[in-house]
Specification:
about 325 residues; alpha/beta; 7-stranded parallel β-sheet; 11 helices; about 20% strand; globular; binds nicotinamide-adenine-dinucleotide; binds uridine-5'-diphosphate-4-deoxy-4-fluoro-alpha-D-galactose
Length: about 325
């Protein structure tokens, strides 16, 4: 019996693969390397001293996907594979809908054919749109403002519909807040393509001198210091959340939906100051305009995950900042 990890060479997938292997799970990684590289697979092996099967397969290639299921006894899937840049999704909606939606539909078709009935899906806090109150609970209204977010919402709906049609089909939908940090070894971490959109990859590149300064997107929000507040979560905590979710759906039928965050928000300036302090390095920044589509504050109510899965994030902002820095220093 194996767990198929789609997108397992990516940022969150690779960290989850390490946790799965460390607990003795048997995994198969599938990735098309559209946003990752084969070296990551060697790093996962180096960290865990364990081996696993890998398939370079695109989810859009249904025949190749079928072969993966034909050749293996896959009874669970953790589905990370997808395109994830909000801005790019506005420029390339067809590509995003095709990759994320068609890719997931192909996966579900093949899972059905091979009687594979458990899936953990990577959703996002973006599905809450601009929440009226904070912290955000799982039963808050859902909405999206860009094609990326729309794909997450649509896939959530598709998974729920498949469960309605087949009660044996078990689903965990995990809504991630803002993952940052890297594995302690410094061997795996976030490697964005081109100029980073997200804040931590940008901060570390300013700190190493690749970019002159960070632009803080607005300081006139209704927050303590005027800059945007987010719920940053260490990627290793997030990875462990997938093991908890897997346990949950092994033991329970139905569709389980959980926020994965720390429950605490930090502003952009708090993040920058913490990064500077714990790493003893300067991060130059300037205040710029708001980024279109950004909201003032976003942080999770994490009680459901704690109560129902016994999962909590344990790593604080300082550790996240240290580990992000360690990764960039080892991979300049
Ligand atoms: P990532 O880009 O590092 O990893 C995704 C992986 O999927 C990459 O290795 C990529 O090559 C692969 N992939 C993409 N399309 C594929 C396809 N058609 N076939 C096979 N492989 C394909 O991204 P990540 O940060 O690790 O995110 C993982 C998942 O979590 C994504 O679904 C993303 O939308 C979601 N998510 C991420 C964040 C975040 O801030 N990183 C927040 C919320 C949700
Ligand atoms: N920010 C800056 N300067 C930058 C980049 C970001 O000031 O150069 C600010 C943003 O305005 C925001 C905060 O830093 O206040 C975090 O921004 P990110 O781009 O790192 O993250 P977002 O919260 O905008 O979005 C992320 C993922 C989305 C996901 C969402 C919720 O990129 O895919 O979290 O999970 F949907």
């Amino acid at each position: 019996m194996s767990i198929l990890v789609t997108g397992g060479a990516g940022y969150i997938g690779s960290h989850t693969a390490v946790e799965l292997l460390d607990t003795g799970e048997n995994i198969i990684i599938l990735d098309n390397f559209s946003n990752s590289s084969p070296e990551v697979l060697d790093k996962i092996k180096q960290i865990t001293k364990k081996d696993f099967k890998f398939y370079k397969v695109d989810l859009l290639d249904e025949n190749a996907l079928d072969k993966v299921f034909e050749e293996n006894n896959i009874d669970e899937v953790i589905h990370f594979a997808g395109l994830k840049a909000v801005g790019e999704s506005v420029e390339k909606p067809i590509e995003y809908y095709n990759n994320n939606i068609t890719g997931t539909l192909n996966l579900l078709k093949v899972m059905k054919k091979y009687n594979c009935k458990k899936i953990v899906f990577s959703s996002s806090a973006t599905v809450y749109g601009n929440p009226k109150t904070l912290p955000i609970k799982e039963d808050f209204p859902l909405s999206t403002t860009n094609p990326y977010g729309a794909t997450k919402l649509m896939i959530e709906q598709i998974l729920q519909d498949v469960n309605v049609a087949d009660k044996d089909f078990r689903v965990a939908i995990l809504r991630y807040f803002n993952p940052i940090g890297a594995h302690k070894s410094g061997l795996i971490g976030e490697v964005p393509n081109g100029i980073p959109n997200n804040i931590m990859p940008y901060i570390v590149r300013v700190a190493v001198g690749k970019y002159n300064e960070l632009t803080v997107f607005g300081n006139d929000y209704d927050t303590e210091d005027g800059t945007g507040v987010r719920d940053y979560i260490h990627v290793v905590d997030l990875a462990k959340g997938h093991l908890s979710a897997l346990k949950k759906i092994r033991e329970n039928s139905g569709v389980q939906i959980y926020n994965l965050g720390t429950g605490r928000g930090y502003s952009v300036l708090e993040l920058v100051k913490t990064f500077e302090k714990v790493n003893n390095v300067k991060v130059n920044y300037k205040i710029g305009d708001r980024r279109p589509g950004d909201i003032a504050s976003c942080f999770a109510d994490v009680n459901k995950a704690k109560k129902e899965m016994n999962w909590v994030a344990t790593k604080g902002l300082e550790e996240m900042c240290k580990d992000s820095w360690n990764f960039i220093l080892k991979n300049k």
